[in-house]
Amino acid sequence: MLEEVYSFCEEKMQGSADHLLVNFRTLRTGRVTTKILDNVRIDNYGSMTPIDQAASVLATDATTISISPWDKSMLSVIERAIMKADIGVNPNNNGVEIKLFFPPMTVDQRQETAKKAKGMADDAKVAIRNDRKKANDKIKVLEKDKLITADESKVAQDKVQKTTDKFISKIEDLLKVKEQDILTV
After folding, report:
1. Percent of the chain having pLDDT more than 70?
2. Phi, psi of 157 (to 5 degrees)
3. Above 80 in pLDDT, residue 176?
């Protein structure tokens, strides 16, 4: 019974850490990556799909992304989606492909991006704490139903807290690395 609670807790908290990493990939650092377009969706014949499922997306150099749609009629759709996504650049459509030119980040932009990263990390910490609460609630139900003793409940809640501390520390480490990546010129 308690092993199920521990595995639930570990699985959920690992999911929160993984989600944070996915979110961090959408943030711009000194070098541009195609991951910045991961959250941009286009209307591809009635279904909302990621750009990379309708076009070839390449980072041609440290400051340029080139998007070549497989169907040229999708150029304007992709262009509108990028404008709507507000990723910090305006798309340049030459009739064949769309190019995104990212200027070097200013100090203010780097600090603003670092704030966004901190906000994402804070959200992940909240999710981890919510997972802790759910796990502790399950333990309390087991104790109330007399399936475990009060001592076992206390030990189990301590173990859940240690797991929580481990993942909070992991989130803080991920944030430090990302902030350093963002703030390094």
Report:
1. 99
2. -65, -35
3. yes
Strand partners, 15: none
CATH fold of 2-25+106-183 reads: Topoisomerase I; Chain A, domain 4 (1.10.132)
Q: Is the pLDDT of residue 174 over 90?
A: yes
Residues in Cβ contact with 109 at an 8 Å cutoff, skipping those fewer than 6 apart? 88
- Print burial letters for 66-95: b (CB count within 10 Å at least 16), e (below 16): bbebeeeebbebbbebbeebebebebeeee
What per-residue confidence (pLDDT) applies to 44? 80
Q: What are the residue ranges spanned by the domains of the chain?
A: 2-25+106-183, 34-101
Q: What's the pLDDT score for residue 1?
A: 82
CATH fold for the domain made of 34-101: Gyrase A; domain 2 (3.30.1360)
What sign results for the dihedral spanned by CA atoms 110, 115, 116, 118? positive
Backbone angles phi, psi at 92, to 5 degrees: -110, 110
Residue at 105: amino acid letter: M
